[in-house]
Design brief:
Blueprint lengths: L2 H8 L3 H9 L7 E2 L5 E2 L2 H15 L4 H12 L5 H35 L9 H6 L9
Helix pairs in contact: 1-3
Length: 135
């Protein structure tokens, strides 16, 4: 099948497929007689795997590691679990950062009267460097 059909079946855009080939995440596709890329069902399955992993927030480097393990039938599931747990820890760190940002913004908006006066604790807060480690 051509790249458009592979993209449609896998959920990965044709541009992303070409990018994944260029960085070696997937091998270069075979070519048909006219020189166009030709993809097999197995390659589409690999693209679906990549799409799902990327949708869960795994980096391209992490996806490369997961693909290697996915292809290795003698893999240890503990290796896969370790990658997933490291990713969960990174997500939890991002959530904590976002929660801190949320708390700061809520605090600033609570202190702002939101009226016709020029005094604005939000702008004052944005112009000040925090000393307590908050964003």
């Amino acid at each position: 099948m051509n790249i458009g059909e592979a993209a449609k079946r896998s959920g990965v855009s044709a541009k992303a497929i070409r990018y994944y080939e260029s960085i070696g995440l997937i091998p270069a596709a075979g070519r048909n007689a006219a020189g166009y890329r030709a993809y097999t069902g197995n390659e589409v399955e690999t693209l679906r795997f990549i799409h799902r992993a990327r949708s869960l927030g795994f980096s391209v480097a992490e996806v490369a590691g997961l693909l290697e393990l996915w292809r290795d039938r003698s893999r240890a599931s503990s290796d896969v679990k370790a990658i997933a747990l490291n990713h969960v820890a990174a997500i939890e760190g991002k959530i904590a950062e976002l929660e801190a940002i949320r708390r700061t913004l809520l605090d600033l908006t609570r202190r702002c009267h939101g009226d016709d006066h020029p005094d604005c604790p939000i702008l004052d807060g944005l112009g000040r460097v925090p000393t307590d480690g908050t964003p």
